[in-house]
Protein 1
Amino acid sequence: MAHRLSRALFTLFAFALVLPLFGCNLQFLHVVIPDFAASAVEGVQVWRLQEGTNQPIARGQLVFNGDPYVAPDGFEVIDYTQVAPDGTTGFTLQSPVNRNPAAPQQLELWLFYDRQDPEGWHKVSTYNAQGSSALSLAQSYL
């Protein structure tokens, strides 16, 4: 399993090196969702923290295209599509899924995010049909 996950992460890394050649500013978002299935999570909202005020500003969504599944090469993945703040959709991408054996409902994901803003601090939240979670405690400089 560790070999497959390493191979999947290597593929993601190689993909990240190629896409900037096409004008994409891809960043990795490492996201842990503790209750993916129980909360019927539909996607991840990305927030940029405004300089000076730290006010969160919605900067796009990573919309899951269904539930995780086992790919032909044997490891679990989930498909997702980035939706920009203006509603423009990007490529459909895949993230490897890592599950905590002690808490199998918890998903650990490595998601590509095409940052369209200047660099800055970002947080995430998850959402479903009932609304959004609180913003993440962790933040990333993207």
Note: The chain has a mean pLDDT of 86.
Protein 2
Amino acid sequence: MGITLIICGVALSFCTYLLLRWWVTHRHRIRRRENLKRTIAAEVDELVRRIETVAKKAEEVQDAGTNFLQSSKYLTTLLTVLIKKFDGAVCLTEGDFLDCGVDDYVTVYYQEENNSLILQLNTILPLMSDVKDDEPTFH
């Protein structure tokens, strides 16, 4: 009976050791998962913040690109450049305004090669364009 008691004590100690080791390992895994979740959440938050920043900048650029002709400051500057180019004076008569019909319009192009703005009268752009993708002129 004495040896049986010793074997039971050793077995109980060994089982206690195994249970304690499992518990410590399990707690360690849980902490690693929680740290990983926190890290992933922080990275996702950072990505969302960056995406929002890029989207905001893209929206500002798009607004600047689409609304520049509605800006009185830009249009005033454009008129100043045109008048200066034509020796400082442009005379517009009532007849000039009456000569403009519904079919008369101006197309605006931007050319990246030399940073030029091209204004062209009565330009009809084809529906299908054979222009290469690397053409530096934007319509």
Note: Helices lie at 2-67, 72-85, 94-99.
Protein 3
Amino acid sequence: MDRVKAEASVTLLLLVAAGATLTLSAPGTTDAANPDGYSHAAATCLQGSDGTGLRLRLRQRHHCDGSDTYPYLEIDVREQAIAVNKSLAIGDTNSAFRCQSSKKSCKPFVSGEIMFNHLEESSPQGLQTDGWYELKFSTGLPETGRFKVDCFQPCG
């Protein structure tokens, strides 16, 4: 009988631990519209009528061939000097959009922020950076996550 109680206690303890693990999420990823996030980024320069700055196109999978694959997030950073570990607001100067498919227009985020944790512009591969984002619509869950630039499209 004691063995059955011991096994039941261990099983209960494992269930409680599993429940706690499912309840506690990593910082920056709780209550996100997309739990997988958009962790792979392609970077290029803003040019022409878009102004000057940096464009990040964030995807759920690594993709560097330059074609539009959906869904993706687009973040345009127009700050002239991008500082590491400094939060940049999405709003008046910087903008962000969620593009679900080629059949629907991209939907702008109303607010949010992006931060670059590492920024190296002089590497042989081009721009090497990573960071995190939190983007909000007027209603619904925010898009949050971490990203890493996988590819850099040269400025023309």
Note: The first strand starts at residue 40 and ends at 46.
